[in-house]
Amino acid sequence: MLSERTMKFKRQIHRNITKYITGNGFRRMYDFLEKRLEQRGRYPLFRIADRYLIREFLKAIMVVVSLCYVMGVVIVLFDEIDIFLEYGADVLIAAQTVLLATPYRLAEAGPLVMLLASVFSMGRLVHAQEMDAMIVGGYRLARLIWPVFCCSAVCAAAFFLTCEYVITPASARAEDLLDLQIKQKGKGTVGRNSVWMLGRYGKKYFVQSFQPSESRLIGLDIIEMAHGGYRPAKRIKAATAEWDASSGIWRMKDGIEWIFSDSGERRKEPFAERSYLLDETPHDFSLVSRDETGLSHADLKHLIRMVQRAGGDPIVYLPYLRLREALPFALIIMSLLGMGIAFRTGRGGYVVGLGISLLVALVYYGILLLCLGLARKGVVGAGLAAWIPNLIFGAATLGFLYRLDRGT
Known about the structure:
The N and C termini lie far apart (76 Å). The chain has two domains: 24-188 and 285-408, no CATH class; 200-279, no CATH class. Strands 1-2-3-4-5-6 form a six-stranded antiparallel beta sheet, covered by helices on one side. Helix 9 (318-345) packs parallel to helix 11 (382-407). The protein is 65% helix and 15% strand. The chain is of the alpha+beta class. The chain has eleven helices and six strands.
């Protein structure tokens, strides 16, 4: 039992805490928030000049994206026009293929787009001496970089999401139109030919033709390796295999199964129809049969896990995965670099800024292609190869902007 004195002391503490929370503490919190809001009113995070810079930057981005998309349509059309003429493609299907394939080309040119937009928008302000007026009004270059950095960061996030959920599906659809409709026009059944894949538990798949629309494999050949992977334990050949979505199994028809023993003996078992529970689904065969342009970041990660799970080396897909992760940051770097170029060359006109921008983009893509080529050969790690251009140009941009800020 607690003494009366102890109980009285606890009640007094409770009253003091309640009084502080409901009275003085709440008042202090209210005063603090009121003070911060007043300061934010006098010194807002985004001022009128910041909103003006962001608006000009976004306008330039939309103009450059539109121009680059038109150029991309022309480039894709000239790349595929021989195929359209050879297979007698329908005009509407050919036009749809070109329009759907162009956004991926535009995404590849994302750093160049942001560089040109930054050079043109900021260069116009420098040429009109509006930047000089901001600096005279108390802005430093470091403060003027802030709205461009925030805008480019939002654009980079939107770029990644757009590539994942819009551009990649559009590219996959364009690939389907080209391979399954235009190139196989007039055929009774269409599909992707010569599909090879590593599966789980030492299985290797070779398919003569995969028909995605019907989830059907034609000319299926499965080799299951024994423990250790030095000899085959089982081989199955089937004329067709159809996916049963309700049960999640493959129904094979007109096939033969060979079973190899440890002593080298072979047992042959023909079958007319048989059900097999395979870990690989039509979605897996669809992914491995596509080009990398039609694979999203999630698809590439899935394929890499499949290859690693099968004991293979995912060196084919890793560079593209790391590039998808590094490219959005290149947009931010190029935006800031373009702002620095505009400050240096803005009064000289757009021609000088355009020439320097194209030279910078040429060097950037040259380094990027060299690093990706080395990564595909295993000379350089895929992650390092994708980030080397960002590291080089990021360091150069920071140094360039620092010297400009000290000079203003």
